[in-house]
Design brief:
With 136 residues, the protein is an all-alpha fold. 68% of the residues lie in helices and 0% in strands. The protein has one domain: 434 Repressor (Amino-terminal Domain).
Length: 136
């Protein structure tokens, strides 16, 4: 069985958008690289390497960045809406840390769905209460 290992260019196509997303969300908040680096406890040059895709970002670091920028983790994993989806019929092998990140993202989304469902139930109850008041 042949194992396909992604080249740097292919890795950039699949995972390179994370650094771009970080920069975009940092710019939206008008945060400097120095501020982000300070909050992360790293140097500005180390932070620059994260944004530029020169280093592979660890799950824990991405979680920290997401919290600082007030964004859910999956926001950094989504490509721009106008881009064509990446389609590759070959198997793509991901690291354990990337798998953990995806699992954490799924868990976070499941929690958000549950919160929204609970909110809908509360609003439906409130609507029913108001209808009963008007019917009297």
């Amino acid at each position: 069985m042949k194992i396909n290992i992604l080249s740097r260019k292919e890795m950039k196509e699949v995972f390179g958008h994370i650094g771009e997303s970080i920069r975009k969300f940092r710019d939206e908040k008008c945060y400097t690289q120095d501020l982000m680096a300070n909050r992360l406890g790293i140097t500005q040059s180390a932070y620059y390497k994260i944004e530029s895709g020169m280093v592979k970002i660890k799950t824990e670091r991405l979680i920290q960045i997401a919290e600082i920028l007030g964004k859910p983790i999956e926001a950094f994993l989504e490509k721009e809406k106008h881009e064509e989806p990446f389609i590759n019929e070959q198997k793509v092998y991901i690291s354990l840390s990337e798998l953990e990140l995806l699992q954490k993202t799924i868990t976070q989304q499941e929690k958000r769905i549950k919160e929204i469902e609970d909110k809908i139930v509360r609003k439906d109850k409130k609507i029913d209460e108001l209808k009963q008041l008007f019917e009297k």
